[in-house]
Amino acid sequence: MNTPRPFFLRFAAVWILQCFGTPLLLAGFYWWLTWPDEHFWQVCASFLWAVLLVVAAACLMRTVLAAPAAESSWLTKPIALPCVATALWLLVFAALELALAHVDDRVESVAVRFAQLLRLPPRLSIGLLHGIVCATMWLVVPALLLPLGSWMAGSGFGALRLGFQRVIRSARYWAGLASALVLFYLSHRLIDWIPEHRTLHGELVSAGWRLGLAYLLAVTAVVIAAWNTSRAQAEAETASSTVPSTGG
Which of 142, 166, 163, 162 has its CA nearest to residue 153? Predict the structure, then answer.
């Protein structure tokens, strides 16, 4: 039996992998967008590259969704089905977030019509709808999908409802989600903050360190949320396995 590595080393390894793996995936996605599609072989190559990107993203996400859950025991389980499940989960998660971002871009025009129908002040209507969309994007969707993603990354499609119920009751899970939201907020504030500089060089240096720090905060938020979800899943599995079965 392998001795688990210390918490700090495991967390640092996952964090470093996410920090370097995410830019590589984004670079691969940007490169994919520049591919021509004039010939049939180019379309086929583009499709294969897109599949490879999805698989790579699923494997990268699985390292943080499943690896902390059972220390090193997850490595002994079959990975094909969990990787497919993680890829599908990732596509659903990305589609929902992109759809909500698109809705958020159109909130103002919808809110004005909503205000006219209900005879509300436009600013109140815009703020209300924007708050609902943002709460759904940053809280409701992650809160619902993270437990399912952690379970699917470790066990594929089996017992999804049971896994969701176990994780959603964990205080560790909610603490991780709250910490991630705070870090995402700080990351957003860093990007929006534009300090005054007298030279172009100063502005570039300021933008560079602010964007870099915001990226590190965002990666840390993702790792903390997924890590705590995975740990909550592991604790639920351990608790269920220690409950004695009653014979009929």
Answer: 163
Contacts of 184 (CB under 8 A, 6+ apart): 138, 217, 218, 221
Rounded to two decimals, the pTM is 0.76
Token pair in block for residue 94: 């990305």
* Rounded Cα–Cα distance for residues 175 and 194 (Å): 31
**C-alpha dihedral, 116 to 121 to 127 to 133, nearest 10°:** -20
Write the CA distances from 129 to 97, 137, 143, 212, integer angstroms.
16, 12, 20, 31
CB-count exposure of residue 76 (10 Å: 0-12, 13-18, 19+)? exposed
Q: Which amino acid is at 86?
A: T
Q: What is the mean pLDDT of each run of 10 residues along the chain (248 residues)?
A: 63 87 91 87 90 87 70 52 82 90 81 72 78 87 84 68 70 88 90 80 84 92 87 71 49
